[in-house]
Amino acid sequence: MTTQIDNPRAPYRRQKITRSNFEMWGWLFMRGSGVILVVLIFGHLFVNLMVGEGVSRIDFAFVGGKWTSPFWQTWDLLMLWLAMIHGTNGVRTIINDYSERHITRLILKLALYSAFILTVVLGTLVIFTFEPCPANAPADLLPSFC
Length: 146
Description:
Blueprint (H helix, E strand, L loop, with lengths): L21 H29 L9 H7 L3 H29 L3 H28 L17
Protein name: Succinate dehydrogenase hydrophobic anchor subunit-like protein
Subcellular location: Membrane
Pfam family, one: Sdh_cyt
């Protein structure tokens, strides 16, 4: 069995002609979201690890206190959404590049998109429905800021 290898000096021929710029917009999104994610992640790490007492103060009360502020809810929501979209787009590109059979590509993308949706929906619900001070809870179990 012989395999024919294309001439590496031959001009590039597009396999499929499309009118969509989806891949270009995906590429631009990866660059923009990467820059924004660097700012969000380093800001998150700085506030959580460097300001105040450092890593020793991170507990339920710390997270509950942060998430009482709409600013930190929005910060963490942006970080979650951008990281998940950025990562999903990257893995989608890898699946397109390395899976040879159409059915394999379809199954892998379905698993990827299912994981994306599940993580984003649950993460968003946790950020917005987190209640550190539940009603009728014993006072000795509540954080100090309640």
